[in-house]
Amino acid sequence: xxxxxxxxxxxxxxxxxxxxxxxxxxxxxxxxxxxxxxxxxxxxxxxxxxxxxxxxxxxxxxxxxxxxxxxxxxxxxxxxxxxxxxxxxxxxxxxxxxxxxxxxxxxxxxxxxxxxxxxxxxxxxxxxxxxxxxxxxxxxxxxxxxxxxxxxxxxxxxxxxxxxxxxxxxxxxxxxxxxxxxxxxxxxxxxxxxxxxxxxxxxxxxxxxxxxxxxxxxxxxxxxxxxxxxxxxxxxxxxxxxxxxxxxxxxxxxxxxxxxxxxxxxxxxxxxxxxxxxxxxxxxxxxxxxxxxxxxxxxxxxxxxxxxxxxxxxxxxxxxxxxxxxxxxxxxxxxxxxxxxxxxxxxxxxxxxxxxxxxxxxxxxxxxxxxxxxxxxxxxxxxxxxxxxx
Length: 390
Hints:
By secondary structure, the protein is α/β, with parallel strands linked by helices. The chain contains 16 helices and 11 strands.
């Protein structure tokens, strides 16, 4: 049986006959709940991750495949995700561990795919990766991208670029770096690495000399905001105090000491407007192009952060599990702290395992405010959640 994501029903009603619209809406809701209930009775593992059910009498929520004794239908509520169930006051089942990512076999396959890709000098094909982890190429492509935020091909490219950057910083020649990183020709080297480095390799080794960076400064609900970009995408997005423009500019110049940095408000107006709309809760997904310098590990962490849904949080341990490095919790925290683009890479959505906010590069109070705003906006958008039994 194939399961689809639970749809968000239109609680506001459609234009037309009110009684007919209500009846249609109620009927669709009952059909959806009946399908989910049959799935729960069958303990079908294929439905895990597509929805959760909670039991009023116990105050617990579970995966559809949970092996616990089945409750009475009238005591059951359905939720689209674990966070919605917890916001409604239910706690996670200690038997099926609905929040434990490790129980999702596809996540383990993605972790194995990361290890396999990193072990290969030349990027493996999608078919090779799929055969290694036991997934079809099409499903692997889709699930890998959902979990990591980048495709397998992009992940493999990040691994190669990490080798390029390390050798260039050590002063090796471009030619030596070419062969050490597994590139078969200089043409491939120069065609592929600029997308990751944001410049030609020799320019990167020279400290980005000759690179043009435009920036703008705008007022936001959380203080001053510096937005800076190269021709490829955003390279810096930072909060500052109302009187701290000089400090923000000093940081930008320190990070790109040999670049030509110029203010260009008109050029960056679309990006600045999108960011302000995001802060106002009007644009939950802030999918802006980036041109940031990162190690392969940082790229994996930042991709995982971009995959955290708006209005939700993850612990440092959960992020470490997601990227296949369960013991790298402190390294994940360091990668969050070094994130140069606030909001677009939402490091504010990572908290401690006990829910405490921990640190934030731009201040814990900003982090608290951001999370509160996002949670409120996300809750308001979930018109049909939870699906309560009639």
